[in-house]
């Protein structure tokens, strides 16, 4: 059973998401938070698998709440935003979110997102993945390779760059002429070596370290 916590200051929004998710086998909405502070409290109290977190709420906002939840628990956070290029999405991913969705996402996509995040993967709305990555990577601070990339092999750096470009394990396997299982193993080892919790954080690290720059894949 996937346990879900809804965090949004609008009652109707929470009710809408609950009506979609509660009707699905294997998914249980275990709580509703009205703001970021409430979300943090309930995340500790009911220990959901996934939080659907509104990015803009009064008091403690979704970014600050995500940062606190990600730092102290293994609960995963999906950020909900009104616009697909919300100025705060990149900051939310850096704070520890495992992905994000726009609020007008189709019900089937919402359910899929919850299942993907619950099993430990990361998700960024498919229709805007590459555009979002390029947009927000361009706003990153000056690249700093740091110590976390030092342990990676050349092949692992290549795989990490492809993850940062939005490619799935199957797409990475096809591009590098590997088996999907081998590509998945590479990604898992990279996350272990760089000490990141999921693919979303791996994307952020790739751009902030300077390993990848926006648009490189389309030019290669």
From TrEMBL:
One Pfam family per UniProt = Response_reg
Superkingdom per UniProt: Bacteria
4-aspartylphosphate is carried by which residues? 54
- GO molecular function annotations of the record: DNA binding
Say if the entry is tagged with keyword Transcription.
Answer: yes
Q: Where is the HTH luxR-type domain?
A: 145-210
Going by the UniProt record, its keywords in alphabetical order are: DNA-binding, Phosphoprotein, Transcription, Transcription regulation
Q: Which residues form the Response regulatory domain?
A: 3-118
Instruction: Give GO terms for biological process.
Output: phosphorelay signal transduction system; regulation of DNA-templated transcription
What PANTHER family does the annotation carry? TRANSCRIPTIONAL REGULATORY PROTEIN NARL-RELATED, TWO-COMPONENT RESPONSE REGULATOR
- The protein in question is named DNA-binding response regulator
Organism, scientific name: Virgisporangium aurantiacum
